[in-house]
Write a structure and sequence with these properties.
heterotrimer, A mainly alpha, B mainly alpha, C alpha/beta, A: mainly alpha, ABC transporter involved in vitamin B12 uptake, BtuC, 14 helices, globular, C: alpha/beta, Rossmann fold, 6-stranded mixed β-sheet, 22 strands
């Protein structure tokens, strides 16, 4: 199956202006469409958007909430982007979020005697490894057999959620708990909060470090260089002596690990356990983040913050007005659609 | 017990089968439809509204199918004319549809999640006199509504359409060899759009089956990912209508089974994963045999 | 419509032709004042090597591309073709090298696609379809399994289907682009018989080929083109294979560059190499070949005689059925390209756009790819961008790549400069052996001289070169030894001095030198 038309790998970064333009256009179009929906429902879209902006960035508390909401999206956006860059169309980060979150929670409530200095890293490592392991099968199938990774990873998502649901309903169900959830993780396993009265936690710092590492990986490492070339032209990469299947596998696994970390920070930083319905589509929004950010490290960060702003302001706007929070889902989905649409194709006749 | 299970399996098969046949036609034409679930969702919602408002189940079906087709048409245009990636667009449509459905429920009906309307006309059940009491056969043939009969009727119809009609041949040519089709003067994009309209129509009907056929209400989670199970079904069936129907039947059986397994100690969630696992296994096997065939180049 | 066209075609003197057709792509003139006339009811061959401008001309004759100057002649009058559909309306149909068939459909379904005989309600009339197919096949003197899927059908059957489909759709001018490239000898004979039969039936055939034996066997008229120009055009019985070979590849115009380097150790040694492909067709057999340090060995031959397969075998891009490949006395038969590169192999791909370069990536990236893990460019796990940029600039200067900025995509360069980028990368780090495939394809005249100079300097510094080229002139200019491939086997090897165009031409045609 073909890669998305806006393969981030093709963006070489010599025109920052163009990057901003191509990233803003989908967002602007999504605002227009959602504005029509709002207007039809009897809301003034401009008022709603002003309120959204205010609720996202209006105060340091709101900004902190936005960053907290952006945290998992940064990881899933980066996770999607590394696979895309290698030419692997991985839509399975969503499943890794669940598996990673469950693994982190499991470690967090099981090894409660460990000190924080050990337990927290151990739990995060478990999350990363679980996410990585979840991508072994689709990764191998793609790298060795060239099996359609879109379908395999999509299917892996459903399997991941179902398995996690089974585990939290049975073997890992908290004693005395009626709803499908694991026990709470130990205090020592929780990511420290960064600000009083806000859910913003150390996970955000890890996310920023990952953005930096991703940038470094893309710009300054041999592996990142090879991945970029392999994604753009597998034949060229092969002819210059690179092992393309192995690169693809590595990036699929890395993609899974980042998805796992997304789940880990969500479990250890926000919910402190794994509950049924753990991920509100972090992995899927991550695809939109990667696409909107055009695979660029800072673009991904910006896009994740944008989506984080949407979800956090959507949650509070519901309290202050009668605008349903779902306007955020509509916006997110629209951005995803417009991010891959090529409006230049309209005037052209198909070749 | 067995009768019950057969009956339940068939009931759960219908929505999967309807959407899978639509997706099959769509994929034959060259589009992998990831957005079936969104079309199903809106079919379910509009069917319920029309069935309550107007009271005609036939009109409700028409509107549900039409709504699905409309969403399918939009999705298709983005894919064929704006050259957008079908997977991303399909996922995007699923996200938008989920949000929009809830948005509409809240804005228009002031309810959250579930819509109950008075006087919903349900799909009529067709009973064949004398069959209902026959063991097994009765479970298979009686107590099903019009859409179940329609869905199974569409299986041979789709097979016949693809092989024997001009439109079916052109559809297959478009999906399997766009360049060749275009070189002969066919219009692949238009043919593709038509196939997505049909997929949307079928998915819309599948949604109507869930809302006015099965439960009589609408819920934001009513599809329970059946659009994706339908995807698994036509991948499982490798685009053959009969094999796809078998896949849908198998997945419908799993669905019925997991309901029955609840409270019996066997985890129903794991049964639910079977369709997805089977698709991965089948894709792996296909890729492996393709690799063996192509061989040489390392 | 068809009736009147046939009448008109019968009366016309020129069924299909060109008058002064010129087509430029930037600095490159692909077609330069092309003239030819295909008379009705004849087979007219268009002969030329790769890059001669044949495909551009074919696209123009199909209406897929418009000439900058000149016009297409159909039935004695100038016409403008808006596209293949328009060409088809005038009775002109084409069989492309890449078949326009839908592999998953049956032969019969492919035949009738888009022109299906239908009964009521759009239901295909299968009996009528089958009868139409059988009638066509019978008239053409061939048999086809109509219910077989195209993907299961042998290549020659697919080709016959393409031809019959043109007839089914009413074409009476058939353009065939390198139709025999994919066929075995017996199948070629059958195809030629079929084409003659169609001609005798009144059809006009434009036969594009570089296989001179076939061209001489069936053509009534022959037009030779080289570097976009018509070299000669006239009746087939007024020329000969040898003459065509010279006209096609160009005569030697340049003085031989004197040798400076002495031959050294054997760098590449191939023994008993053979290859049978996935379809069971024998591609290479019993090849023995060696290249020593300080010499250029050229692999000559008409394209499709095993050059690509041999190169893939030497580079390790594909595995072989039997025999051995040794690089500097190491047996590398089972090794990957990466391992072979580590032993001193360099590979200049014939497919510059997809394999030789990564067009979307920057010039610097293209120069450095494959060398980026060298210690000087990688310090404690990080790429040393400054050193990389400096090295790339130095390499680009050394090979005279004219550029605005090395940070721009390599696609922004002209063909000649692009090729120099690839050469700059491959000759970096003094490899022991360079496999140089079509090093000057699509490069302008100045670029060619510069690239030749690079190769000679590399040889004189003690490098070993295996040159694969379809340009005889290039081979005569550069090579110390010339090995001619024919039909997947070595037909003969000539030393510089004993080689002349005629003897090489004979070897290329499978005759004795």
């Amino acid at each position: 199956m073909a890669m998305p038309s806006t393969n981030p790998a093709t963006y070489t970064g010599f025109s920052a202006l163009k990057l901003i333009g191509t990233a803003l256009l989908p967002f602007a179009l999504a605002l227009v469409v959602a504005g029509v929906v709002l207007a039809m429902a009897g809301h003034n879209p401009f008022d709603v958007y002003r309120l959204l902006a205010l609720e996202s960035f209006g105060s340091s508390k709101r900004i902190a909430a936005t960053m907290a909401a952006a945290t998992p999206l940064i990881f899933t956006g980066l996770g999607t982007a590394v696979a895309f860059r290698a030419g692997a169309f991985n839509v399975g980060v969503e499943g890794c979020v669940s598996i990673g979150g469950l693994a982190a929670a499991y470690v967090g409530f099981t090894f409660v005697t460990l000190p924080a200095a050990l337990l927290l890293p151990f739990a995060m490592l478990a999350a990363a490894l679980a996410g990585l392991a979840w991508m072994i099968i689709p990764g191998l199938l793609k790298a060795r057999l060239d099996a359609d990774e879109v379908v395999t990873t999509l299917m892996m998502n459903f399997i991941a959620v179902a398995i996690a649901t089974w585990l939290v309903n049975g073997p890992l169900l908290a004693v005395g708990s009626a709803n499908s959830a694991t026990p709470m993780v130990a205090e020592a396993a929780r990511l420290p909060r960064l600000m009083r009265g806000s859910t913003l936690n150390a996970g955000f710092l890890i996310a920023l470090i990952c953005v930096l590492l991703y940038w470094l990986w893309g710009k300054r490492t041999a592996l990142g260089f090879e991945t970029r070339l392999a994604g753009m032209s597998p034949r060229f990469a092969t002819a210059t002596g690179m092992n393309v299947p192995r690169l693809v596998l590595k990036m699929m696994l890395l993609s899974g690990a980042l998805g796992g970390i997304a789940g880990g920070t969500h479990a250890l930083g926000n919910v402190y356990r794994y509950v049924d319905g753990f991920s509100p589509g972090y992995g899927f929004v991550g695809i939109a983040v990667a696409l909107l950010g055009r695979g660029n490290a800072w673009g991904i960060l910006m896009a994740a913050i944008l989506f984080g702003a949407l979800s956090t302001s959507g949650a509070t706007i519901q309290l202050f007005s009668d605008v349903p929070i779902e306007i955020v889902d509509i916006l997110q989905g629209m951005v995803m659609i417009f991010a891959v649409a090529r409006f230049g194709a309209l005037g052209r006749k198909a070749a | 017990m067995l009768d019950n299970l057969i009956h339940a399996a068939l009931i759960m098969t219908t929505p999967i089968l309807l959407a899978a046949l639509g997706g099959l036609i769509n994929r034959t034409g060259g589009i992998v439809n990831i957005g079936l679930d969104s079309m199903m969702l809106f079919g379910a919602m509009t069917a319920l509204i029309v069935a309550a408002d107007n009271g005609s189940w036939l009109l409700a079906l028409a509107v549900a199918g039409g709504t699905g087709a409309f969403i399918g048409g939009l999705m298709s245009l983005v894919i064929t004319r704006l050259k957008a990636n079908e997977i991303i667009v399909g996922l995007g449509f699923s996200i938008v549809a989920t949000g929009l459905a809830r948005f509409i429920l809240k804005s228009t009906y002031g309810v959250s999640g579930t819509l109950r309307l008075p006087d919903v006309t349900r799909l009529p059940v067709i009973d064949i006199p004398g069959v209902a009491d026959v063991p097994v056969l009765g479970a298979m043939l009686s107590g099903h509504n019009v859409l179940t009969w329609f869905a199974w009727g569409m299986v041979p119809a789709a097979a016949w359409f693809l092989v024997r009609t001009r439109a079916g041949l052109r559809l297959r040519a478009t999906g399997a060899g766009e360049k060749a089709a275009r070189s002969l003067g066919l219009r692949p994009l238009a043919i593709r759009d038509a196939s997505t309209l049909f997929a949307g129509f079928m998915a819309g009907l599948a949604g109507a089956y869930l809302s006015i056929g099965l439960v009589g209400i609408f819920n934001e989670g009513i599809t329970a990912g059946r659009g994706f199970i339908a995807l698994a079904a036509f991948y499982f069936g490798r685009n053959h209508p009969v094999m796809t129907a078998l896949g849908a039947l198998l997945f419908g059986f799993f669905d019925a089974l997991q309901i029955r397994l609840q409270g019996r100690g066997f985890p129903p969630e794991l049964v639910q994963t079977l369709p997805y696992v089977m698709v991965i296994v089948i894709l792996a096997m296909l890729a492996w045999s393709a690799k063996k065939r192509n061989g040489a180049r390392t | 419509m068809t009736q009147s066209l046939a009448l008109k075609a019968g009366e016309a003197r020129v069924r299909l032709g060109a008058r002064g057709i010129t087509r430029r792509f930037g600095a490159l003139t692909a077609n330069d004042q092309i003239d030819f006339s295909a008379r009705p009811g004849t087979i007219h061959a268009i002969v030329g090597g790769n890059g001669a401008g044949k495909s551009t001309l074919m696209r123009i004759l199909q209406g897929m591309d418009q000439p900058d100057e000149g016009s297409i002649i159909v039935n004695d009058s100038a016409v403008t073709l808006s596209g293949p559909a328009e060409a088809f309306r005038l009775g002109i149909g084409m069989v492309h090298q890449e078949f326009m068939l839908v592999n998953q459909l049956t032969m019969l379904e492919n035949l009738i696609l888009a022109r299906e005989p239908v009964s009521s309600l759009g239901v295909i009339d299968r009996a009528a379809a089958l009868k139409a197919g059988q009638d066509l096949a019978e008239r053409a003197g061939v048999t086809l399994n109509w219910h077989q899927r195209v993907q299961d059908a042998p290549v020659h059957a697919r080709q016959i289907l393409e031809i019959l489909r043109l007839l089914y759709r009413g074409a009476d001018v058939l353009i065939l682009d390198e139709p025999t490239a994919v066929l075995a000898p017996q199948q070629i004979r059958d195809l030629l018989v079929l084409l003659q039969r169609l001609r005798d039936d009144g059809r006009t055939i434009l036969f594009i080929s570089h296989k001179l034996g076939e061209v001489m066997a069936i053509s009534d008229d022959i037009t030779v083109i080289r570097t976009g120009r018509v070299i000669t055009s006239g009746p087939a019985d007024e020329t000969s294979k040898a003459q065509l070979a010279v006209q096609m590849t160009g005569e030697m115009v340049r003085a031989v560059t004197p040798r400076r380097a002495r031959e050294g150790d054997t760098v590449l040694s191939i023994t008993g190499l053979g290859l049978t492909d996935g379809r069971g067709i024998r591609r290479l057999s019993g090849i023995d070949l060696s290249v020593a340090a300080g010499e250029i060995v050229a692999l000559a031959g008409i394209s499709g005689n095993g050059q690509d397969e041999l190169v893939e075998a030497i580079t390790g891009l594909s595995s072989i059925s039997e025999g051995n490949v040794a690089l500097r006395y190491h047996d590398v038969t089972g090794m990957s390209l990466h391992q072979r590169r580590a032993l001193g192999l360099a590979y200049l791909s014939p497919d510059r756009a997809h394999e030789g370069l990564c067009l979307e990536a920057s010039i610097t990236d293209n120069v450095i790819a494959g060398h980026h893990r060298r210690a000087e460019f990688l310090a404690s796990g990080l790429l040393r961008l400054k050193a990389i940029r400096a090295h790339a600039e130095a390499q680009l200067d050394r090979f005279g790549v004219r550029r605005d900025s090395a940070a721009l995509p390599v696609s922004s360069l002209s063909g000649g400069n692009q090729q120099r980028v690839a050469i700059a990368r491959e000759l970096d780090g003094s490899p022991a052996l360079l496999i140089a495939c079509q090093p000057t394809r699509g490069v302008d005249i100045h670029g060619i001289a510069a690239i030749h100079q690079c190769l000679l300097e590399y040889r004189d510094a003690g490098g070993a070169v295996l040159l694969v080229s379809e340009e005889l002139e290039e081979i005569m200019t550069l090579a110390d030894r010339i090995t001619v491939l024919f039909n997947g086997a070595v037909r003969g090897t000539l030393r510089r001095g004993e080689a002349d165009v005629e003897s090489i031409g004979r070897l290329m045609l499978g005759e004795d030198a």
